[in-house]
Write a structure and sequence with these properties.
Elements lengths: L1 H24 L7 H43 L4 H16 L14 H23 L4 H4 L2 H13 L3 H14 L4 H15 L2 H10 L5 H25 L9 H24 L7 H31 L3 H12 L3 H14 L4 H7 L2 H4 L1 H14 L5 H12 L5 H15 L2 H5 L3 H17 L2 H6 L1 H16 L4 H18 L14 H8 L8 H8 L2 H34 L24 H9 L4 H17 L8 H10 L9 H15 L1 H12 L6 H19 L9 H11 L2 H12 L23 H5 L20 H17 L6 H15 L5 H17 L2 H6 L2 H17 L3 H25 L3
């Protein structure tokens, strides 16, 4: 009717316009009767609109007078009679939709006045009731009558206004009778599930400009209620407003409303989901996403697997979430889903319709985030790879992951956790690639693999290197089975096995398993049953093995000899002198003699340290170039201990030789690392107090015989019979020993920093050999800490800080770890007053750099070490200033 009227008015206007133009030409023109009829209809509609407006204004004025009368009556606590009457009139006005008589007031048009009251003046009545209630009112009006009136007033009118008013009261009132009433009414409001009625009411209205403002106000009140009650009530807060309980209740009310919408949709009625989408988005971005999605997924998962309408509704809800809230909603939902097949039920093909969802799933979750929860990657990649409409996104994401995985710069500037996350994503993606995908994109994928292989093999981190080897082997064999194979030597452990297992997609747990996973009690029962089943299976396997073994050994009557304690007999004698030991190590034709001499070298060196000065350098050279040609058991440890014993016994000569040979050209990286390890261990041993010489049992008997004289016997008897009343020292004083490392610390320290920036033919520490640079810095830190309390520690700290300052922005994370370790050693070794006076500028610069590392470094281990350095510095400053305070 309205549309037809608008068409007529439009035609009337156009005819009128043409009529004016025509009158200029023809003065005797008469308009057609259709135009006159349209004019009459338009004028009547205009009159009705004006009358309705006048009537609404009249009804609004009457309601305003009535509300003012209510305010005056409730403020006058002495007028008991009028207070009861006005409260009864308010109840009638809310309860009865048809025309009725009020005792204190009469309306000219009851229906219009009631609608105007509910729509425009209901919230003012609620606020007036809350503002004026006090402990004096129950004296005039009984407590039961007041409670019943307030409960009726807030739970039977405009529910939206009731919720907003109660939230306003909790925020405004101080701890008082009014605040307690607000909390009590709100608890009843939630227990009665009035939120369901609010949600249904808002879902029946389409989005408009005015309605959007109302939605924002209502959603903010719902999401902020736990924080408001916690801040206002604090320790007296009700358990109903705790986030776990409150968000669970709100989520269940949302699911109830969705169930009603499914019923309405099946009855061919229109439904609107925008309000629900906005509410879910706001709850998730506020911080309640885990609780909300846990309830939603557990409740909706069984329904989604059986009913397609539920799938469509969930897809519309997720896609209707505002863009700023979409990330928190998706991340929490993916985390709570137990299987990737359910993502298709929740999202459908919305990733193809909404670019924001595609960006979050294919780029941000895969490339910019990392998590220890493997099922997040399985859900995302399984969702992309299990549909032909989304498979092209899986291929695209797989190529992007490969390019980032193989980028040397990305490996250096990302944390090990992030890189492991990328590696897991690639393994999971391989499980969802089909043979057609591998054949179609084989050449491009092989081209992307090659740079990653080179970048991982040259990396200094052992874990990253191993992960790269495992993934490169798997990629080459899976993508091109008939092509050349990659084979690397690495140690297989639990991590490599778990990576290979990721290629197998998880199976569908089924409805029963889903319900068990969502119920904690049943989960415990299933775990117990699984443990029992595994115990039974292992017992059966043990029985089968014993049966097989008994069958195999039934025909064998011979008992094998115990050869565990047999000693290997050799005709080579152990050397008794150091020179014989050194000659035995040089002899390449006698592997048994070399092995025995290597085993005896440490004992001989420590037993006869006096004659080592002449041959110490030559002996160290022999050990440094010694190779394990006969596969000697414990060869690395034996050689290392022998070199350490030489360095401890003759520190100056051996340290000068090792530090000079460290930068020589004719050594591989393993030998240079051995030099650094020997220097660090020797410095630690020299810094420790010298142990007392061990007395042999034969020598001990001689000493006891010499001491066993008549004087000692008499002295012992006197000591046993003497009673001492003065408190003396219960323990003898510790003997003072000279620090053996202090005089030789410079020989271990300064030569290592001479030529670190020189690029030799086969040795570039600032380039590809950064692993050795990291070990060098770590060794300098150990040497620095070993020189603690020595006179040269201040000069060593100054030189070391200057050395570290050049390398603080190194790309390799292992080098940065070593630098942070060195800074910790400086703060532990140098006295506090020296740090804050003579090294103040260097320490302040280091402090600023440490703060930048904590805030900006992508590596978590670097952040931890930097924070540890800052704590050490803070403790040093506190101790220093505490020592300066007067007693």
């Amino acid at each position: 009717m309205i549309k037809a009227l608008l068409v007529c008015v439009y035609e009337t206007k156009s005819v009128k316009c043409n009529f004016k133009k025509y009158l200029v030409v023809n003065e005797h023109y008469t308009p057609p009767p259709r135009v006159e009829k349209c004019k009459q209809i338009h004028s009547k509609a205009k009159q009705r609109k004006q009358l309705s407006k006048i009537s609404n204004m009249h009804a609004s004025n009457e309601v305003r007078v009535f509300v003012k009368q209510f305010d005056n009556t409730i403020q006058n606590t002495n007028d008991n009679y009028n207070l009861i009457i006005i409260c009864e009139d308010i109840e009638r006005l809310i309860k009865y939709e048809k025309e009725t008589e009020l005792k204190s007031f009469s309306f000219s048009n009851y229906s219009e006045s009631r609608a105007c009251f509910i729509r425009n003046f209901y919230m003012s009545v609620l606020k007036s009731a809350l503002n004026n209630i006090s402990t004096d009112i129950p004296k005039q009006l009984s407590a039961h009558a007041l409670n019943s009136f307030l409960q009726f007033l807030f739970l039977n009118g405009n529910f939206k206004d009731s919720l907003l008013t109660l939230a306003w009261g909790i925020n405004e009132f101080r701890p008082s009778y009014r605040l307690n009433k607000c909390v009590t009414l709100l608890e009843e409001f939630l227990r009665s599930h009035v939120l369901c009625k609010i949600f249904k009411q808002q879902c029946s209205v389409t989005s408009q400009v005015e309605q959007t403002y109302v939605w924002d106000e209502l959603i903010n009140a719902i999401t902020s209620l736990p924080d408001k009650t916690a801040n206002k009530l604090q320790s007296q807060n009700s358990e109903l407003f705790y986030p776990k309980c409150y968000i669970t209740m709100v989520t269940k009310d949302i699911i109830t409303v969705l169930d009603d919408m499914v019923t309405s949709f099946k009855a061919n009625k229109d439904i609107h989901l925008e309000f629900i989408s906005r509410l879910i988005g706001k709850l998730c971005i506020t911080g309640y996403s885990d609780i909300l999605m846990e309830v939603m997924v557990s409740s909706l998962a069984p329904l989604l697997k059986e009913d397609f309408i539920w799938c469509r509704i969930c897809e519309r809800i997720i896609t209707g979430v505002p863009d700023r809230c979409l990330e928190s909603v998706l991340l929490s939902m993916i985390d709570k889903l137990p299987w990737y097949g359910l993502m298709d039920k929740f999202l459908g093909d919305s990733i193809l319709k909404k670019h924001k969802i595609q960006y979050l799933l294919c780029t941000k979750i895969l490339l910019f985030r990392h998590s220890e929860k493997i099922h997040i990657l399985q859900n995302v990649l399984g969702y992309l790879g299990t549909s032909h409409t989304r498979r092209h996104l899986l291929i695209k994401s797989f190529k992007e992951l490969l390019s980032v995985w193989g980028d040397n710069s990305a490996i250096r500037h990302t944390s090990p956790e992030q890189h492991l996350y990328l590696t897991r994503a690639l393994f999971i993606s391989l499980g969802f690639l089909t043979d057609k995908d591998k054949e179609t994109h084989k050449d491009e994928l092989i081209r992307l693999i090659m740079p990653g292989v080179q970048a991982h093999i040259g990396n200094s981190d052992h874990k990253i290197r191993t992960q790269g080897m495992v993934l490169a082997e798997t990629l080459a064999s899976v993508i091109d089975p008939n092509g050349p194979k990659l084979k690397f030597e690495y140690e297989k452990d639990k991590e490599t096995t778990s990576l290979l297992e990721l290629m197998i997609p998880p199976s569908d747990p089924g409805l029963e398993m889903l319900q068990k996973k969502f119920e904690a009690i049943q989960l415990e029962q299933t775990v117990d049953t699984k443990m029992v089943d595994t115990d039974i299976k292992t017992a059966e396997k043990m029985e089968i093995r014993t049966d097989v073994d008994s069958d195999l050994d039934s025909d064998d009557d011979l008992v094998p000899y115990d050869m565990s304690n047999d000693v290997k007999i050799t005709q080579v004698k152990e050397p008794k002198y150091i020179r014989d030991c050194m000659e035995g190590l040089i002899s390449n034709d006698e592997p048994e003699r070399t092995e025995i001499c290597l085993k005896c070298s440490e004992r001989l060196i420590r037993k006869h340290p006096d004659g080592l000065e002449e041959i110490a350098t030559e002996f160290t050279k022999v050990l440094l170039h010694l190779g394990d040609k006969s596969s000697t058991p414990g060869y690395t440890q034996l050689r290392f201990k022998a070199m350490v014993s030489l360095t401890v016994c003759v520190p100056i000569q051996v340290a000068d030789y090792l530090t000079a040979e460290f930068y020589d050209r004719n050594y591989n990286l393993r030998q240079r690392m051995d030099i650094l390890e020997v220097l660090a261990s020797s410095a630690q041993e020299l810094s420790q107090p010298a142990e007392q010489p061990v007395i042999n049992p034969s020598d001990k008997k001689i000493v006891e015989v010499e001491d066993d004289t008549w004087q000692s016997i008499v002295q012992k008897r006197i000591e046993t019979k003497t009673r001492r009343f003065s408190k003396g020292k219960s323990k003898p004083e510790l003997q003072k020993t000279m620090n053996r490392f202090a005089p030789v610390a410079g020989h271990f320290f300064y030569p290592l920093m001479t030529r670190f920036d020189r690029k030799e033919n086969t040795f570039d520490m600032l380039g590809e050999d950064s692993l050795v640079l990291g070990r060098l810095i770590y060794t300098l830190g150990v040497v620095m800490y070993s020189a603690i309390n020595s006179p040269t520690v201040k000069q060593m700290a100054t030189v070391l800080l200057e050395f570290l300052w050049v390398l603080r922005f190194h790309q390799d994370q292992s080098v940065r770890h070593s630098i942070l370790f060195c800074l910790s050693m400086v703060m532990l070794s140098v006295p506090g007053h020296v740090l804050l006076s003579q090294l103040q500028s260097e320490i302040m610069e280091a402090k600023q750099w440490l703060e930048d590392v904590v805030q900006k470094d992508p590596d978590t281990e670097s952040k931890r070490l930097a924070l540890q350095c800052l704590v050490l510095l803070e403790n040093t400053i506190k101790q220093e200033f505490a020592g300066e305070e007067p007693a």
